[in-house]
Amino acid sequence: MINFEEELKHFQPSDEIEDAENAIYEHDITDMTDIMQQMMSELKRTR
Fold first, then answer.
1. Residues 6 or more apart from 2 whose CB is under 8 A from it?
2. How far apart are CA 24 and CA 13, in angstroms?
3. What is the pLDDT of residues 2-43, one digit of tens each?
4. Which of 18, 23, 28, 45 gives a 20 to 30 Å CA spacing to 3?
């Protein structure tokens, strides 16, 4: 059986993953929620 506590002690995070996370969090990326909020704001203003 796998001892998860023991396996976690050997875990080494990947540098590539950390670099990718930093790149993603540093950029202001518009997602679907942002688009929907903008559309709702525009709809409310036009009424």
1. none
2. 17
3. 999 999 999 888 889 989 888 888 887 788 899 999 999 999
4. 18
